[in-house]
Design brief:
Blueprint (H helix, E strand, L loop, with lengths): L9 E2 L3 E4 L6 H8 L2 H6 L8 H17 L4 E7 L5 E11 L4 E8 L8 H16 L4 E7 L3 H9 L3 E15 L5 E13 L1 H10 L6 H4 L5
Parallel strand pairs: 5-6
Antiparallel strand pairs: 1-2, 2-3, 3-4, 4-5, 6-8, 7-8
Helix pairs in contact: 1-3
């Protein structure tokens, strides 16, 4: 089996998931500089245009070409506006498993885009790439992301104690790093089939997942 993912785009009813382009850099920098992104991800802070350019044009493409995973810019089908990012990483080509991470831009929250994009990537990963496991890890206090994991059919497998460093606001308005637990979730092909059945027939993604961060 190939050790790299194909260079593709994925479409849903509302979204197009595609490789990052130079035109995405300003919106990417703004998205990654958001407070919730700073709190729950390991993205550099402050996140600059230089960081965005390096990610979009060098680091993200290298994830695919070097076999580590694949990165999708999530854009609205009608407006072409950048609304998020989905990242498959820690890919194991022997066990056919990967870990998924995702971010939704602050201007696009409340629309259910996290659920829609993750389900689309999972369906492609399982059906087209024949993978057998998708893993998701959420910080213990990131309840909004945990709700998405539950709603898309993930199964909680346990807790990695003291395994993550999040960021928290200080009294003077700065940031401090704090250690926290990680909850491990998994999605298997049979879990995805059940999740897709639940969302067949016009389910409102935004109504189902209003609190995703």
């Amino acid at each position: 089996m190939t050790s790299t993912f194909p260079d593709i785009s994925i479409s849903t009813d509302r979204l197009v998931l595609r490789p990052f382009e130079a035109e995405d850099i300003p919106a990417l920098a703004e998205m990654m500089g958001d407070e919730l992104v700073t709190a729950w991800t390991s993205a550099p802070h402050p996140y600059t245009t230089a960081h965005a350019r390096d990610w979009a044009l060098r680091e993200a493409p290298a994830e695919r070409t070097q076999g580590r995973g694949i990165v999708f810019a999530v854009t609205e089908f009608l407006t072409h506006r950048l609304v998020g990012c989905v990242h498959l990483h820690h890919t194991d080509w022997r066990t056919l498993s990967a870990e998924i991470g995702y971010v939704v831009a602050p201007w696009a929250r409340g629309e259910g885009y996290a659920c829609e994009s993750v389900l689309a990537v999972a369906e492609w990963l399982f059906r087209d790439q024949r993978f057998e496991r998708l893993e998701l890890r959420t910080a213990a206090d990131n309840t909004a992301s945990q709700q998405v994991a539950q709603k898309i059919g993930c199964i909680s497998e346990g807790v990695l104690r003291n395994a993550w460093i999040a960021r928290s606001r200080t009294e003077d308005g700065g940031w401090t790093e704090i250690r926290t637990d990680l909850i491990v979730w998994s999605l298997l092909p049979e879990d995805l089939d059940e999740a897709l059945e639940q969302h067949t027939g016009g389910t409102d993604y935004a109504g189902a997942f209003p609190d995703w961060r």
